[in-house]
Specification:
This is Phosphatidylinositol transfer protein beta isoform. This protein is α+β, with helices and mostly antiparallel strands and 119 residues long. It has a domain of 78 residues. It is built from two helices and five strands. A five-stranded antiparallel sheet has the order 1-2-3-4-5, with no helix packed on it. A hairpin with a 2-residue loop joins strand 1 and strand 2. The chain is extended and about 45 Å long. The model has no long low-confidence stretch (mean pLDDT 80).
Length: 119
């Protein structure tokens, strides 16, 4: 038998304020890690509405050449350290697909972040 414990942390803000703070934090982290041709390149960032679901669609390219060890940089083929991410963020749900330009799979792997409740 498995014992499951749940902990709830009360936040001094509303769900809407938390969402704004989360978006700001992600934007700041992206800005701080970008420069000199490295980091995150945002191709599209626009609102979307599909089947009653409203959210933000983003298409980003992650350039991580300088973020990996040098021995990996030597053996990685051109474009292997560039990742594309397409995300449909309908807070609190987020659907993301990621792929590389050189190793594009026929079916994109997808991950979905489960929602969590805030008081």
């Amino acid at each position: 038998m498995v014992l499951i414990k749940e902990y709830q942390v009360l936040l001094p803000c509303s769900v809407e304020e938390y969402q704004v703070g989360q978006l700001f934090s992600v934007a700041e982290a992206s800005k701080n890690n970008t420069g000199g041709g490295e980091g995150i390149e945002v191709l599209r960032n626009e609102p979307y509405e599909k089947e009653g679901e409203k959210g933000q669609y983003t298409h980003k390219i992650y350039h991580i050449h300088s973020k990996v060890p040098s021995f990996i940089q030597m053996f990685a083929p051109e474009g292997a350290l560039v990742f594309h991410e397409k995300a449909w963020n309908a807070y609190p749900y987020c659907r993301t697909s990621q792929y590389t330009a050189t190793f594009t799979p026929t079916a994109e792997p997808q991950s979905s972040v489960p929602p969590f409740s805030l008081p």
